[in-house]
């Protein structure tokens, strides 16, 4: 399969077997385990089918207490079973996994993660997981205490070590009055992870077991209660970096500055406003990170003083004077004082003229390993879904990335980061 535009374009391939007839669509198995979030999988199923995927739903017996078999069958267009004894002559416990292009389990309960990690196979879904030779994605959902339990964390680490993508659960309202980490991510964002994993085909989850930190958006430096100094950054490139890293198996911390975008599935998001707040969040997250990618547009300066009341026009018509002071240089600080040996640091340089010359100067001055240099302007890059750049390496390398989706640039960055980590 290849990527073209925003959606992956799949090489035409005719396959037969458990799906019953010759089909021409990517085959996805949607496993659903027994958690209250099972109802959200209906939305994920809709997105997968409407985008051209052939989806077979394989629920557990417990999952049917939350959403009935008739619903799954009607939405997918395929019969639904939970056990290996149905249609035995077609050997479904083997065929379903063998013919799949992707298996996604959403929600994945603590029990399901434990069974998958230990190779148990007591129903159709767990048998499918053992026979699948395609990429496998787990979207956990459970109470915070269950997610944080050492047993669950060991099971997650085992699955990731084997190449499965286990996306981090979201933080939010759980069942009852409880709130915390363990909520199933938004189905639309889980779909984006599936889309990215499918686009990579059977390529290994090369960032599995790695922790990466990405900054995104643009900082805002308050002048008074209603005004600030800011920039045009939308955060889309940083979010693309976070999404692609999650799809490649990484544990991702995204430090987001004023980006009006939904939190990517499987990503720990820290929301900040100013450059000082971003520095604090990035340095904290970078303490155990394998790589840090500074895609945020960080203000170089901030007002030296904050006006407690709105700055008004004065009767004498005198123009107000705003004194600026330098913000900390976060990229240079990260590069000079690596939190751990071998940590890879990547910067971004948004330039309006002499792009490559200015980029090389900045790379040397900042001391980072890679610098993504692109030309920006009022109608270039900011807010767009596309980007083009040249990635400069401290080793003298230059990697041009042609105009295309920001996800394509993100994948190139992670390819270069992964090579340095290896």
TrEMBL record:
Gene Ontology CC: one annotated term: phosphopantothenoylcysteine decarboxylase complex
UniProt region (Phosphopantothenate--cysteine ligase), positions on chain: 212-422
Binding site for CTP: 300, 310, 328-331, 348, 362, 366
Residue ranges of domain DNA/pantothenate metabolism flavoprotein C-terminal in the record: 207-417
Keywords: Decarboxylase, Flavoprotein, FMN, Ligase, Lyase, Magnesium, Metal-binding, Multifunctional enzyme
Annotated ranges, domain Flavoprotein: 27-194
Catalysed reaction, written as an equation: N-[(R)-4-phosphopantothenoyl]-L-cysteine + H(+) = (R)-4'-phosphopantetheine + CO2; (R)-4'-phosphopantothenate + L-cysteine + CTP = N-[(R)-4-phosphopantothenoyl]-L-cysteine + CMP + diphosphate + H(+)
Cofactor(s), by name: Mg(2+); FMN
Region listing for Phosphopantothenoylcysteine decarboxylase, in residue ranges: 1-211
Cofactor binding note from Swiss-Prot or TrEMBL: Binds 1 FMN per subunit.
Keyword Flavoprotein appears in the UniProt entry: yes
Organism superkingdom: Bacteria
Any Pfam family matching the protein: Flavoprotein
EC number: 4.1.1.36, 6.3.2.5
Role summary: Catalyzes two sequential steps in the biosynthesis of coenzyme A. In the first step cysteine is conjugated to 4'-phosphopantothenate to form 4-phosphopantothenoylcysteine. In the second step the latter compound is decarboxylated to form 4'-phosphopantotheine. Catalyzes two steps in the biosynthesis of coenzyme A. In the first step cysteine is conjugated to 4'-phosphopantothenate to form 4-phosphopantothenoylcysteine, in the latter compound is decarboxylated to form 4'-phosphopantotheine.
PANTHER family (alphabetical): HOMO-OLIGOMERIC FLAVIN CONTAINING CYS DECARBOXYLASE FAMILY, PHOSPHOPANTOTHENOYLCYSTEINE DECARBOXYLASE
Protein family per UniProt: In the C-terminal section; belongs to the PPC synthetase family. In the N-terminal section; belongs to the HFCD (homo-oligomeric flavin containing Cys decarboxylase) superfamily.
HAMAP family assigned to the protein according to its UniProt record, in alphabetical order: CoaBC (MF_02225)
The name this protein goes by in its record: Coenzyme A biosynthesis bifunctional protein CoaBC
Annotated gene: coaBC
């Amino acid at each position: 399969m290849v990527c073209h535009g925003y959606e992956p374009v799949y090489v035409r391939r005719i396959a037969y077997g458990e799906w019953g007839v010759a089909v021409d669509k990517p085959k996805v198995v949607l496993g659903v385990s027994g958690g209250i979030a099972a109802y959200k999988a209906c939305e994920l199923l809709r997105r997968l089918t409407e985008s051209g995927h052939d989806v077979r739903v394989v629920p557990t017996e417990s999952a049917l207490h939350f959403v009935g078999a008739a619903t799954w069958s009607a939405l997918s267009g395929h019969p639904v079973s939970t056990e290996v004894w149905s249609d035995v002559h077609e050997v479904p416990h083997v065929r379903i996994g063998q013919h799949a292009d992707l298996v996604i389990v959403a929600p994945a309960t603590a029990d399901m993660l434990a069974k998958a990690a230990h190779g148990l196979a007591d129903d159709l879904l767990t048998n499918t997981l053992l026979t699948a030779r395609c990429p496998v994605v787990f979207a956990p959902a459970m109470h915070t205490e269950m997610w944080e339990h050492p047993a669950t964390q060991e099971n997650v680490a085992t699955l990731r070590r084997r190449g499965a993508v286990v996306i981090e659960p979201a933080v939010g309202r759980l069942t009852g009055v409880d709130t915390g980490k363990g909520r199933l991510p938004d189905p639309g964002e889980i779909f984006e992870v599936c889309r990215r994993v499918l686009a990579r085909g059977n390529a290994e989850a090369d960032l599995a077991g790695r922790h990466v930190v990405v900054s995104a958006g643009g900082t805002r430096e308050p002048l008074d209660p209603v005004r600030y100094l800011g920039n045009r950054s939308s955060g889309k490139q940083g979010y693309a970096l976070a999404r692609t890293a999650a799809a490649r198996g990484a544990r991702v911390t995204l430090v987001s500055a004023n980006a009006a975008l939904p939190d990517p599935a499987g990503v720990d998001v820290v929301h900040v406003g100013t450059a000082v707040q971003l520095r604090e969040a990035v340095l904290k997250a970078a303490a155990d990170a394998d790589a840090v990618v500074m895609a945020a547009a960080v203000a170089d300066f901030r007002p030296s003083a904050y006006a407690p009341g709105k700055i008004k026009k004065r009767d004498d018509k005198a123009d107000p004077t705003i004194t600026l002071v330098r913000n900390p240089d976060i990229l240079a600080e990260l590069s000079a004082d690596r939190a751990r040996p071998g940590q890879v640091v990547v910067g971004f340089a948004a330039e309006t003229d002499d792009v490559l010359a200015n980029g090389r100067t900045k790379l040397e001055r900042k001391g980072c390993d890679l610098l993504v240099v692109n030309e920006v302007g009022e109608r270039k890059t900011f807010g767009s879904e596309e980007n083009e750049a040249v990635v400069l390496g401290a080793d003298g390398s230059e990697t041009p990335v042609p105009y295309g989706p920001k996800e394509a640039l993100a994948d190139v960055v992670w390819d270069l980061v992964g090579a340095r980590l290896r």
